Amino acid sequence: MNEPITGIALGAVIVGLALSTFLTRTSFLLAGARLRLNPRIEIALRYAPVCTLSAIIVPDVLMHAGTALDLSLLNPRLIGALAASLWLCASRNILGCLASGMLAYSLARILL
Fold this sequence. Notes:
Layout: H1 7-31, H2 39-45, H3 48-62, H4 76-91, H5 94-111
Helix pairs in contact: 4-5
């Protein structure tokens, strides 16, 4: 039942996934000029990248060691995220944000 897919079946899966990806991505490009979304929906969609990024990063930062929620200041990922957040709020400099976050994370890993 858990046998690997090989041969023609593997080719069919690859072609099917490629076609589904192509169709779903190009449908928005082709219909984009003709189909207009409600302005409220367009405004709401501007927040989609931030929400997606938050959904990926927050669990990784808060789930130290992959098992339990770790909100202590002994969590190096949390220290790095806090340092990066403070830098970004104070200066609005992305490169400084990345550098300060990585520096704080690296120091916390070495010292803790």
